[in-house]
TrEMBL record:
It comes from Aromatoleum tolulyticum. Residues 65-424 form the Amidohydrolase-related domain. NCBIfam families: guan_deamin, PRK09228.1. One of its GO terms (cellular component) is cytosol. The keyword Hydrolase applies. This is Guanine deaminase. Pathway: Purine metabolism; guanine degradation; xanthine from guanine: step 1/1. Its cofactor is Zn(2+). Its EC number is 3.5.4.3. InterPro entries: Amidohydro-rel, Guanine_deaminase, Metal-dep_hydrolase_composite, Metal_Hydrolase, Metallo-dep_hydrolases. GO terms for molecular function: guanine deaminase activity; zinc ion binding. SUPFAM superfamilies: Composite domain of metallo-dependent hydrolases (SSF51338), Metallo-dependent hydrolases (SSF51556). It is an enzyme of class 3 (hydrolase).
Length: 430
């Protein structure tokens, strides 16, 4: 048994949902961990009295402890092309992504990048992520292997592409299906790893591959599906040409049995109300990727409409089109995207989206995203005085909401003092 003392913040519901009890905050709190799981979180004074005499107490007073961040969309194979300039989505994919992903046929390269990538997530306080590798089986093996070593919660699967991409990344629909099945058998459910059927997007799969992907999902209850949806206007027009029979881009996925609980779609910028209604009704989730949408000039995510439809929403960094691994920075950019759309994002809602909201969109809220008893003890120790400016600005804050807002606007990896996974230290700022 272990206990961490500090300021504690977590959510039990969506603070935008009107529940007064959604946010739990203890200025002097204690998080008690037993066998890697949360035993209890609450006020230090009351809980200290109940602790056995030999319990180890880590004193982090002055720091803010929140559940580990959940990144609902990121590409590990694009780590080395983050910050590559020029062009919107389709040009950017051809210019940077295809050559970068080609290198993941090499297991040594894949393993080296996977290790760096997982460490970078931890350095930024991210303990759970839904990740795109490449079409290569070895890229998935490398990622799952690196995550397993660090006991991180990772959802991933072999990228499926059988058209509209270079031949060095293309394989037949049948080979993609067979490769996916082998990986599911080997990795799904191992420690904290979960498989996601991963058709890259409808443009790079033939109807046959889309059909097989839907079948794979149907045959494996409990696995995820991840893809891209309605990110960029030229992309949407292209999908209309490729699938003239579909009502919309989303409808393509639905026709092939890919829409349902545990389906996560990145971007969701260019949707209509019917699409949002279908996503809500089927239990699918949107991954809002603000830095990517700004970087590629894709468009502005509409959180108000997603909320009105009742769709699950999480936050994605979408590295390498996204420009930061930091969920704090990504929340700051989410705020700015919504400002451009005439909407707002409270700091409480933002921290909810980065933790429990992400967990809910991945159907993992019974395991992570909050400090309710029994949840896996993944957490981040944040330093709200990490830089001279953060320290100065935070000192002037009167309320928790103000401090959280300052943290998401000015904070980044420097504000992450420690990251803990399953109740054990996984990273500590030097
Ligand atoms: N759509 C299809 N593939 C990709 C990708 O790798 N990045 C982004 N941002 N969008 C995509
Ligand atoms: Zn993406």
């Amino acid at each position: 048994m272990r206990a961490i003392r500090g300021e504690i913040l977590y959510f039990t519901g969506d603070p935008a949902g009107g529940s007064a009890d959604a946010l739990r905050h203890f200025a002097d709190g204690l998080l008690i961990v037993r066998d890697g799981r949360v035993a209890e979180a609450g006020p230090a004074e009351a809980l200290l009295a109940k602790l056995p005499a030999d319990a180890r107490i880590e004193d982090r007073r002055g720091r803010l402890i929140v559940p580990g961040f959940v990144d609902t969309h990121i590409h590990f194979a694009q780590t080395d092309i983050i910050a590559s300039p020029g062009g919107q989505l389709l040009e950017w994919l051809a210019r940077y992504t295809w050559p970068a992903e080609r290198r993941f046929a090499d297991p040594d390269h894949a393993a080296a990048v996977a290790g760096f990538f997982c460490d970078e997530l931890l350095r930024n306080g991210t303990t759970t992520a839904a990740v795109f590798p490449t079409v290569h089986r070895v890229s998935v093996e490398a990622l799952f292997g690196a995550a397993l070593q660090r006991r991180m919660r990772v959802i991933a699967g072999k990228v499926l592409m059988d058209r509209n991409c270079p031949d060095f990344l293309r394989e037949s629909a049948e080979d993609g299906d067979a490769g996916s099945r082998a990986l599911i058998a080997r990795w799904h459910g191992r420690d904290r790893l979960q498989y996601a059927v991963t058709p890259r997007f409808a443009a790079t799969s033939t109807p046959q591959q889309m059909r097989l992907a839907g079948r794979l999902l149907a045959e494996h209850p409990g696995i995820h599906l991840q893809s891209h949806l309605a990110e960029n206007r030229a992309e949407v027009a292209w999908i209309r040409e490729l699938y003239p029979e579909a009502r919309s881009y989303l409808d393509v996925y639905e026709r092939f049995g890919q829409l349902g609980p545990r389906s996560v779609f990145a971007h969701c910028v260019w949707l209509d109300d019917t699409d949002r209604g279908r996503m809500a009704a089927t239990g699918a989730a949107m991954s809002f990727c603000p830095t990517s949408n700004l970087f590629l000039g894709s468009g502005l995510f509409d959180l108000a409409q997603a909320d009105a439809a009742g769709v699950r929403v999480g936050i994605g960094t979408d590295v390498g089109a996204g420009t930061s691994f930091s969920m704090l920075q990504t929340l700051g950019e989410a705020y700015k995207v919504l400002q451009l759309n005439g909407q707002s994002l409270s700091a409480e809602r933002a921290f909810y989206l980065a933790t429990l909201g992400g967990a809910r969109s991945l159907y993992l809220d019974d395991r992570i995203g909050t400090f309710l008893p029994g949840r896996e003890a993944d957490f981040v120790v944040l330093d709200t005085a990490a830089t001279p400016l953060l320290a100065r600005r935070s000192a002037a804050c009167g309320t928790l909401a103000e401090r959280l807002f300052v943290l998401m606007m000015l904070g980044d990896d420097r504000a992450v003092a420690e990251t803990w996974v399953m109740g054990e230290p996984a990273w500590r700022r030097p």
